[in-house]
């Protein structure tokens, strides 16, 4: 397994639509394992293909707490097939928008259908943090980021804050 580079805003690939996987083979399984390793190494709870420079409909998620058993989802071509009427508005972050957070409204529970690493169709119904992560990661495959749900004012403020911090960190690293 090997670590992958995580792309950050404003990389154009984060704004592109990922393509459907036609066949789940060893190469796809290997990429999913590399994505999982990269996600753990960066302390993320989810990672989508676009974020590692691949326009492929691949998503990995593990929302289990530190004191819990891993709850690994490695999904090929995931689709939300059902969701609750109820929504929740909670704080969200993203490895591609590092260390910036904002409240985003999401469905409280979702059912996702996907193909697993072995090529089998799986279905999972989730609520809480996992439901939020599934919606966030599937958005990535459409080129959508959580900051897109904010008002232009809030979004610009967040991006300016990120840019300011990047410049400061670059200066400190000199
Ligand atoms: Ni993200």
Characterization of the model:
This protein has 174 residues and is of the alpha+beta class. It has one domain: Peptide Deformylase (Alpha-Beta Complex). Helix content is 30%, strand content 30%. It is built from three helices and seven strands, in the order H-E-E-E-E-E-E-E-H-H. The chain has helices at 26-41, 128-141, 152-173; strands at 46-48, 58-62, 72-83, 87-94, 97-107, 109-115, 121-127. The strands form two sheets. A five-stranded antiparallel β-sheet has the order 1-2-3-6-7. The longest helix is centred in the last third of the chain and has 22 residues, at 152-173. The chain is globular. The mean pLDDT is 97. Bound molecules: nickel (II) ion. Nickel (II) ion binds at residues 94-96, 136, 140.
N-to-C CA distance:
32 Å
What is the rounded Rg?
Answer: 16 Å
Percent range for helical residues? 25-40%
Number of domains: 1
Tell me the fraction of residues in β-strands, as a range.
25-35%
Structural class given helices, strands, pairing? alpha+beta
Q: Can you list the ligands bound to this structure?
A: nickel (II) ion
**Superfamily (CATH H level) name:** Peptide deformylase
Order of helices and strands: HEEEEEEEHH
The CATH topology: Peptide Deformylase
Q: Can you name the CATH architecture?
A: Alpha-Beta Complex
Runs in which pLDDT lies below 50 for 5 or more consecutive residues are: none
Name of the CATH first level: Alpha Beta
Spatial sequence of strands, sheet with the most strands = 1-2-3-6-7
Largest pleated sheet: 5 strands, antiparallel
Instruction: Please tell me the overall pLDDT.
Output: 97
Basic shape: globular
Count of alpha/pi helices:
3
């Amino acid at each position: 397994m090997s670590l992958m580079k995580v792309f950050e805003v404003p990389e154009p690939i984060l704004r592109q639509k990922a393509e459907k996987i036609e066949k789940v083979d060893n190469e796809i399984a290997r990429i999913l394992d590399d994505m999982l390793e990269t996600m753990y190494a960066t302390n993320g709870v989810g990672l989508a293909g676009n974020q590692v420079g691949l326009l492929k409909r691949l998503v990995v998620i593990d929302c289990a707490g530190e004191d819990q058993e891993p709850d690994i989802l490695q999904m090929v071509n995931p689709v939300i097939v059902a969701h609750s009427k109820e929504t929740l508005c909670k704080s969200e972050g993203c490895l591609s928008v590092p260390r910036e957070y904002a409240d985003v409204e999401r469905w409280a529970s979702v059912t996702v259908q996907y193909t697993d690493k072995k090529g089998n169709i799986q279905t999972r119904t989730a609520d809480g943090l996992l439901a939020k992560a599934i919606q966030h990661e599937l958005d990535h495959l459409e080129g959508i980021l959580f900051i897109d749900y904010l008002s232009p004012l809030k979004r610009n403020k967040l991006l300016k804050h990120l840019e300011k911090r990047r410049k400061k960190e670059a200066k400190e690293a000199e």
